[in-house]
Amino acid sequence: MTERLPAAQRRQILERMLLIRATEARIQELFMENVVRGTTHLCDGQEGVSTGMAAALDPARGDTVTCTYRGHGHALALGMPLKDMMAELMGKADGCCKGKGGSMHLTNMSIGLIGTFAIVGAGAPVTNGAALTAQIKGTGAVSVSLFGDGAVNIGAFHEALNMAAVWKLPSIFICENNLYGEYSAYADTAPVEHVYERACAYNMPGVWVDGQDVEEVYTVVKEAVERGRRGEGPTLIEAKTYRFRGHSRTDPAAYRPSGELEKWLARDPINILAERMMQDGQLTKAEFDSIKETTERDVQETTEWALNAPYPPTESVYEDIWA
User: What b-and-e string marks burial along 90-119, b requiring 16 or more CB atoms within 10 Å of the CB?
Assistant: First the structure.
């Protein structure tokens, strides 16, 4: 049964989802203005997965996360300060990686974020490493690996699940199935209809969840976390979700069937939670609009700060090479 969260926690999650949405919109503008170099991958529409996952973890206990290059939302959901992320995107010294990582390489161990990975599927083995550390030390911590449906045909995915199952690691594998691996539909690249069905090959639980319902995501991830803490091994979760934009900043997503985007826009995770809160008397339309307006203003102010922040000195290229 889906757990209904307390009003205060619901509001916190709603605020975090609105922050992610507003930040992604501003990042897209910055890239199109050529303020930020390279490319970027936005998660508009997938906020329910990242915030639901984050709400079920406890970084203070040592829980860790690896995720994909579509990781801005995960970082913010886990609690990365917006200044740290915005500065990193612009290559500034005040960024979370001192301006050396950029859009696809965000790290902050204080919130449990081992990192966002540009290599498809690369986070899964690293999550196993963190999970093995927790197992050996007996900390009770778990490690989460988030990846897209495009990663489930990568060797590292299968190797990681196999190892986690054999060693009963407290690893939680979450596939954000947004229906497309870059520009290819999942149905055209995999022989099984559902990603979670692959769990049976590794003798671990496989669970499907509606990624647009943040409380459903929280409930399922929490159960997997508790299972991992008890020493019962890994879980594979498939969160069915959708990215409202194309794969990357210049992708118009012309490969989508007519009407598909509109269907998913009607299931916006932000609106689903907000409407539920309104029905329960925990939120008014005016309060929702106010939170949204305040968030957008904060994002703009942080952007202006980051634009004026200093770049790292040239000699810093020789720093942070060894740990």
Answer: bbbebbbbbbbbbbbbbbbeebbbbbbbee
Give a yes or no: residue 151 inside a domain: yes
- Report yes or no on 234 lying in a domain: yes
**Helix, strand, coil content of the chain in percent (nearest 5):** 50, 10, 40
The one-letter code for the residue type at 200 is C
- Counted domains in the chain: 1
Phi and psi based region of residue 43 (left: phi greater than 0; alpha: psi -120 to 50; beta: remaining)? alpha
Any alpha helices (H) in the chain, and if so which ranges? 7-32, 47-55, 72-78, 82-89, 123-137, 155-166, 214-229, 260-265, 269-279, 285-308
Containing domain of residue 245, as a range?
A: 7-305
| Residues β-bridged to residue 116 | 67
7-27 confidence digits (pLDDT tens): 999 999 999 999 999 999 999
* Segment 25-54, tens digit of pLDDT: 999 999 889 888 888 899 999 999 999 999
Q: 262: domain CATH number?
A: 3.40.50.970
